[in-house]
Amino acid sequence: VYLFEKKLELDKTFAKYPPYLAKISLEKDRIILKDNMINRIVEVKKINKIPFCELDKKSTCKHIGFCYSLTEYYAVF
Question: Measuring CA to CA, how many Å separate 42 from each of 1, 6, 34?
């Protein structure tokens, strides 16, 4: 019963606070993310086998870091 109560509490927390970054879609050479902190859609493209964030115009940013955490990332890139 205790674990069930903890699970319900976590569900309430996630319902109240959406995830900071969320994956929207994966395509052949790009990943589309939703950045809930700035309320923007972010496109991460593959350029010469290196991920590149179109929003930040960098290959090292929080959006790229989030992409590395996705298991699907390694199938796309």
Answer: 40, 33, 6
Q: Report how far residue 10's alpha carbon sits from residue 13's, in angstroms, rounded to the nearest whole number.
A: 5
Residues 6 or more apart from 76 whose CB is under 8 A from it? 26, 27, 28, 29, 30, 31, 46
CB 12 within 8 A of CB 54: no
End-to-end alpha-carbon separation of the chain, Å? Answer: 43
Residue pLDDT tens, the chain, 77 long: 577 777 667 666 655 666 789 999 998 889 999 999 999 999 999 999 899 999 999 999 999 999 999 998 888 77
pTM for this predicted structure? 0.74
State the Cα–Cα distance between residues 65 and 59, nearest whole angstrom: 10
